[in-house]
Design brief:
CATH architecture of the largest domain: Orthogonal Bundle
Number of domains: 2
Number of strands: 0
Strand content: under 5%
Distance between the termini: 20 Å
Structural class: mainly alpha
Largest sheet: none
CATH superfamily of the largest domain: MetI-like
CATH topology of the largest domain: MetI-like fold
Helix content: over 70%
Length: about 270
């Protein structure tokens, strides 16, 4: 049964979230309005810079094309996000548990992360058929892996000293310390990494399409349409990518909200 203070607390949280969302929404609306007014007043032709109204018209009329390209790029990004997140979490746990593995994996991870993505995508595209999406999914997996790996490694190390001392007083084994203290603490870091990597996964997946492979994703569609006269359709593809990225971010935030309730309670204090 809820307490009398529960409802006011919930209302306060909702008001706080709405207050945080209003400024960026207002800024976005003002930007679009200024863009529309500038194009209209200056009489700028659509093949130079289309007005937001023209972009929206193209988005709705060619929604099937935008959706098909968004599904391709979004699927690659989602697969890379899932595999990269799981691998990043698993490898971080193993490196934290075994010092020898940490000495091998950490320098290797830093080395691979320093290699430009363009080089990796180029090599991967040469390894697979021209109609294969595998290279893009691998590149997205690599990018997500490092984000999640760093966050989970941080969460496994940054524990409350009191909790660790209590486990030592109970003569807990390293495995018990890992499962009872380190992993629960690392979960919030894990979902922070996933939330950070979710939009990045879409960006990497989209950019990877510029360097070969099938020509049916958002990246190639944006490049081909913006280089021609139908720039409204090109911006419609950009809008489709923005919507997919926003869905990724909201989905990861919702997953964190459901899976880590203690973090939610901590932030509400």
């Amino acid at each position: 049964m809820s307490t009398p203070d529960a409802a006011p607390g919930g209302v306060a949280r909702v008001r706080r979230q709405v207050g945080l969302a209003l400024p960026p929404v207002a800024l976005g609306v003002a930007f679009v309005a200024a863009w529309q007014a500038w194009v209209t007043v200056r009489d700028i032709q659509p093949f130079v810079i289309p007005a937001p109204s023209k972009i929206w018209q193209s988005f709705t009329s060619d929604f099937g094309l935008v959706r098909a390209a968004s599904v391709v790029t979004g699927t690659n990004a989602l697969i890379g996000l899932l595999i990269g997140s799981l691998l990043g979490f698993a490898v971080a746990v193993v490196t934290n548990r075994f010092a020898l593995v940490s000495e091998v994996v950490n320098p290797l991870a830093v080395t691979v992360a320093a290699i430009p993505a363009v080089v990796i995508v180029g090599v991967l595209n040469n390894m697979y058929a021209l109609d294969s999406q595998v290279a893009r999914r691998i590149m997205t997996t690599i990018a997500v892996f490092f984000v999640v790996f760093v966050q989970v490694s941080k969460g496994l190390r940054q524990n409350n000293p009191t909790h660790l001392e209590l486990m030592r007083s109970y003569a807990a084994s390293p495995r018990q310390v890992l499962t009872k203290v380190r992993l629960p603490n690392a979960l919030s870091y894990f979902f922070t990494g996933v939330r950070t990597a979710a939009p990045l996964a879409l960006i990497i997946s989209l950019v990877s399409e510029y360097f070969g492979g099938p020509q049916n994703g958002l990246g190639t569609k944006i490049a081909s349409t913006l280089s021609g006269s139908n720039k409204a359709l090109g911006f419609a593809y950009v809008l489709g990518g923005s919507i997919v990225g926003l869905l990724f971010y909201l989905g990861s935030s919702l997953l964190e909200y459901v899976a880590v309730p203690w973090q939610r309670r901590r932030e509400s204090r």
